[in-house]
Batch of 4 targets.
Target 1
Amino acid sequence: MMGKIALNYSDYVYVTTDNPRCEKPEDIISDIVGANEEYQFDVILDREDAIHAAINENTDSIILIA
């Protein structure tokens, strides 16, 4: 649900994981984005890399890290 809201109301989304523990990161990403292929988003498995990408590529934007 959170992924769908982000994809619906954001200009761009970086999808990543947060402490996946025993879950496969790819499964988490799949749950987040589902079949929402019509939206623009990047999948960056490493959370730190995703945050850096969001900050470096969107210097004049509001960035929400949730």
Note: The radius of gyration is 12 Å.
Target 2
Amino acid sequence: MTSSQLLTDGYTRINELVARALKDTTLTELAFRPDPGANSIAWLVWHLTRVQDSHLAELRDEDERWVSEGWAERFDLPLAVASTGFGHTSDQVALLGSASRELLDGYHDDVHEHTLRFLEGLADPDLDRVVDTSWDPPVTLGVRLISVLSDNLQHAGQAVFVRGISDRVGN
């Protein structure tokens, strides 16, 4: 198995968890928050997708799909276009309450497919390329890809968890 295949497997697991969290959800379920300070399924899926989109666009030296494919316009959120959700307040999390399953799924699938095309072209030596010198030690492409993978898997798992709570309380 190559590094590219291994990374593809990991990123595909994110997509599978997102599909599980979103399956047959209503707007009420997507907006459900276990308490006022918690994140909703909609926000978690949007955030993990924004993080993947943002970081991988930087690695590819391309525009984010969020902008280039018109997702920012479709979501129509009163947030800075560059916002990925880091540091969002409870009120900002609530803004995603009107995002539909189709919209969230569409954006996530677009970013996921674009990510897979990038991973497909990687060779093992590519992973040693330094992509961020502001850290000590500098961050390589391989480390950045694993960082995004880890962050995304955690948030996708949280979305599935919130979905389970929502289902249990009959939301």
Note: Helices lie at 3-22, 27-31, 41-60, 65-68, 71-75, 90-94, 101-120, 141-168.
Target 3
Amino acid sequence: MLAILGWRTGQHLAVTAVGPAVVVHPHPAGIFVVPSSRYVVLPAPVRRRCGFVRGDRVFLAADAAQGILVIHSTSALDTMLAGYHASLLGGENV
């Protein structure tokens, strides 16, 4: 995913909790950096704010044109999909 975004080791990143999701993007004043392991590590306060716990599986969505990575918990993804599927059927969330 980092290769798709063109991020390199040592690049500074901004990490922001937005509701139940995390938005990560390059920022020259970002206090987080892409480590040599090429993983994005979410800071504990951001994980807690978004309800992520150790071992959670997450859904990663990259927008290469905008240079952003959005991280969703699987429970948030379930909620989004339930609403979407209900809208396809013209009804309420099931």
Note: Residues 2-88 form one domain.
Target 4
Amino acid sequence: MSRHVFYSLHYDADRTRAELIRKLPTLTPNLDAKPAEWATITRTGEFAIKRWFEQQLRGRSCTIVLIGAETASRPWVRYEIERSWALNLGLVGVHIHHLKDPQGVQSEKGENPFGPLTPFVTSYDPPETDSKLAYRHIADNLAKWVDKAVASRRSQP
């Protein structure tokens, strides 16, 4: 069964790292805002950004936070985490620092972005340092991690 998920990430820094993960056939992602569309949304203001997020979260069972070097410091990622929790969605974190960007560069491991929700949310850090092996580890396990996050969230008050 394909789960409908929302991907949360630091858009400017990690969008290209996230593209392969978003294409995994076992999960149905939210719509990806193209750079020009995202620029228009952000120029329109906070209300437009929140409206876009709300539309993207509708019908999702889980939010996957793709954790890059700066993800934890991003205010909109924190907003997405808070809204996902409030909507009773599953939450799961996946460190993507070992995935290479188009220039072939890996990044530093990012901090946990879940704050006070950390005891309730599992974050996974693929053990492989090679980009292809790290991607394969994520691809092989992400659907299971999502199922676990959704089941865990349903059992919490």
Note: The chain has one domain: 3-154.
